[in-house]
Every structure is written in structure tokens, then in C-alpha cells.
Design brief:
Elements (H helix, E strand, L loop, with lengths): L1 H20 L9 E6 L3 H6 L4 E6 L2 E5 L2 E4 L7 E4 L10 E4 H6 L13 H15 L29 E6 L3 H13 L13 H12 L17 H14 L6 E5 L15 H7 L3 H7 L1 H15 L9 E2 L6 H4 L14 E3 L20 E3 L38
Parallel strand pairs: 8-9
Antiparallel strand pairs: 1-2, 1-7, 2-5, 3-4, 5-6, 7-8, 10-11
Length: about 400
């Protein structure tokens, strides 16, 4: 019996080391910085765009109260805009935030103004009705609720996906729920990118800050994205991936490129009157633009995701992304390489062949799999703000 037990222990050692040698494969990040292109007349005059943060593990009971997600929920996008009933930030489920519907199969490849307006107002009536009919929809200068519902109809979005931990997400939820959610919006010193800078510092402390050059001390969405890319290059454990969520055509003209402050002043011609009044300042802005202001945090060919393939953003493995059950993964482990392990006793075993377990045939995040013994629970505190189910 003793030799048999020792042989089993040795076999377990070999199997354990072999499993460590198998690549992790699909390690999905759990959050993303949204870098959104400018659009419309205001976007032409001020092409800095917008920024928001998507949290895959964090959901919401109401647009202003967060919680950790249940099975089948896809997380929320948290964003700051002026004119949102006095709130500093609003949380919207991912699918409605992008497409103004809760079922991604209802998203059209090409749309029109009437359809988009109908979808947005239908979502407002079902989710924002408690705020009354006076909730502003936005205008030329100030944002409004329409800019938080169906953003993919307005512009292209680049998602800078990165890894988080459950503890970090829980800490952020406690912080945002515990602090005052009252708007003090300021375009120069307390804008949408400032809010995202604070959130990103929860995950990467002291890595995001204002810079005098090239943005004149103003936090811009492009700068926050640049700081994230810069940090990820030095720390591969961030698992940074850049995805593009294209604009759905038909509602408005194509959105424009995202610029920083110095880049906006130069490319829009604002530097000309500055040069007339203060030529040295204009020269410094031009030099700063040429040296540092032309950077682009977006790669040339990012992976494109849409309503029909958001798994890459959400972090859900599909059957096509997982290895087939019939394909063995062989890992040859030399017994001689293990002779230095304490208590190792050689056995008649030159290699071990490991076969991966069967691939999933169901989406583990599908709420339809819930049973009466293990239902998908909604928060008992607030049940009027329901998350969308996993996309198909």
C-alpha cells in the first residue's frame, strides 16, 4: 500500500505542475474607460469628446445607487454630465447606454432620427419617470439625459478595457454610494474627465492627474486614456485591450476625431487670434502641439465590437472562443526535472497527457438558466431599475 500511495502523490505533483504550464487562455478584464468622439456643432468647436467608465461587475438599483451585479447582468456605465436633475453622476446599464434598448437583438444596423428618439423616450419613461417630465434632454452647451441613452447613435466610442479586482469594485461602490451625489460641474476644472480621473485612481493610485502641457491644466478624455495606455505598457498585468464600438449610421453625421486642448487650439484655428494678442504664448502652444499634443492613444486597427458581439467587452466566453472537448491538451513533463522536489519518488511515468474538461454548451451568464432553487435576484431595496440580460 505504501508504494501505491507514494505513486499517487507523485502523479498528483506532476498533474499540478502540468496545469500550471497550461496557458490561462482567456483572462477577461472587468472594466473599461470609454473614450467617446465629439459630435455636432459643439463637438466641432470643442473637439475634446467625452469620457465614461464601464464596470462589468457593478450594477445599479437606480441610476444613482450602485451595487454588485448578480448573475446575468452586464454592468453599468458611469458618467458625469451637467443638467441631470442635479446629480453629479448617473449609472446606466451597458446595452441601454449604447443602444437605448435592453435587448441587443433589437439594435438595427441602420437607423433614423424618428426611431432613435422613440427608443430614447421609451427608455426614459420606464427608467427616469420618477424624476418627472422636466428632466432636460440637453442643448447646444449642456448635456442631458439623451446623451446617456443610445450613445452609439451619436458617435464612435473606444473602450480601453483593463483588469480589476472584486475588492477594488466593492470599494468604489461604497465610495460612490457614501458620498454626496450633487453636481458641481465645471467645464475646466470639474468635467467628465475629472470624474473619470478620480475613478481610475481608485484602480491605479496616483497615476492620473492634470497636466499643464499639453492641456493647460485641464483634464481631457484623451489625456486620461493616454495615461492608462502609458501605465499599461509598463505593467502588463493591467491586460489592456482597446476595442472600437462604431457609430450606428442614420441618426446624425459621423462623429469627429478626439483632440486635446493644445491640439484643438491649433487644428481649429483658435491659435491665430492668440498669436495676434500674445505671439510668445501662441508659439509655445504650437511647439507643445508638435512635440506632445499629437499623440493618439487609439491603435490604428482596434478590434471592432457591436451589439451582436459585445462578449469581448463584457468578458463572456463564447463556445467558439473555447477549445473543443475532443481536442486533448498534451503536456509532457519530464520525471527527471522533478527529482529535486522534496519527497519525490520516481515512478514508471515518462509523461502525462491531460485532457481539458468539456467546453460549455450554455452561456453561464444566461438568466434563463436560473431555477427556483437558484433564481437571479434583483435588489430588494430598489427594483425599478433592471439590468439587461446577456447579449446574444
Amino acid at each position: 500500500m505504501q508504494p501505491l500511495l507514494r505513486a499517487k502523490k507523485n502523479a498528483l505533483r506532476i498533474i499540478g505542475i502540468a496545469l500550471l504550464l497550461i496557458p490561462a487562455g482567456h483572462l477577461f478584464a472587468q472594466a473599461a474607460l470609454f473614450l467617446e468622439q465629439p459630435y455636432g456643432i459643439f463637438g466641432t468647436l470643442n473637439p475634446t469628446g467625452h469620457a465614461a467608465v464601464y464596470l462589468q461587475r457593478v450594477c445599479a438599483d437606480t441610476p444613482v445607487h450602485l451595487r454588485m451585479c448578480n448573475v446575468g447582468e452586464n454592468g453599468v456605465v458611469i458618467s458625469r454630465y451637467k443638467g441631470l436633475n442635479g446629480y453629479d453622476w448617473i449609472a446606466i446599464p451597458l446595452i441601454p447606454y449604447l443602444y437605448a434598448v435592453e435587448d441587443p437583438s433589437r439594435v438595427l444596423a441602420i437607423t433614423d432620427r424618428e426611431t432613435v428618439n422613440r427608443l430614447r423616450y421609451r427608455y426614459k419613461e420606464s427608467r427616469f419617470s420618477e424624476w418627472g417630465d422636466d428632466l432636460p434632454k440637453g442643448n447646444f452647451v449642456n448635456g442631458g439625459w439623451t446623451q446617456l441613452v443610445g450613445t452609439a447613435y451619436d458617435r464612435n466610442t473606444y473602450a480601453f478595457r483593463f483588469a480589476t479586482t472584486v475588492a477594488q469594485d466593492e470599494q468604489l461602490v461604497a465610495h460612490l454610494n457614501g458620498r454626496s451625489n450633487h453636481s458641481h460641474f465645471n467645464l475646466f476644472f470639474n468635467n467628465c474627465a475629472d470624474f473619470d480621473r478620480v475613478i481610475m485612481n481608485y484602480y491605479f493610485p496616483h497615476k492620473f492627474r492634470r497636466t499643464v502641457l499639453p492641456d493647460a491644466g485641464i483634464t481631457t478624455p484623451k489625456r486620461v486614456a493616454y495615461d492608462l495606455v502609458k501605465h499599461a505598457k509598463r505593467h502588463p498585468e493591467v491586460q489592456l485591450t482597446v476595442l472600437e464600438i462604431p457609430q450606428v449610421p442614420g441618426f446624425r453625421h459621423k462623429s469627429g476625431a478626439i483632440h486635446g486642448v493644445a491640439e484643438s487650439l491649433v487644428t481649429n484655428g483658435y491659435i491665430i487670434p492668440i498669436f495676434v494678442l500674445h505671439p510668445y504664448i501662441a508659439g509655445g502652444l504650437l511647439a507643445d502641439y508638435l512635440v506632445r499634443g499629437r499623440y493618439s492613444p487609439v491603435p490604428k486597427h482596434p478590434t471592432v465590437v457591436g451589439a451582436d458581439n459585445l462578449e469581448a467587452l463584457i468578458g463572456i466566453e463564447t463556445d467558439s472562443a473555447m477549445p473543443a472537448a475532443s481536442v486533448p491538451v498534451s503536456v509532457a513533463v519530464s520525471v527527471q526535472s522533478l527529482e529535486t522536489l522534496p519527497g519525490f519518488i520516481p515512478v514508471a511515468m515518462e509523461s502525462v497527457e491531460l485532457t481539458e474538461p468539456p467546453a460549455y454548451t450554455e452561456n453561464p451568464f444566461d438568466p434563463s438558466r436560473a431555477t427556483s432553487a437558484n433564481p437571479v435576484q434583483e435588489s430588494p431595496a430598489r427594483s425599478t431599475f433592471v439590468q439587461s440580460s446577456s447579449p446574444r
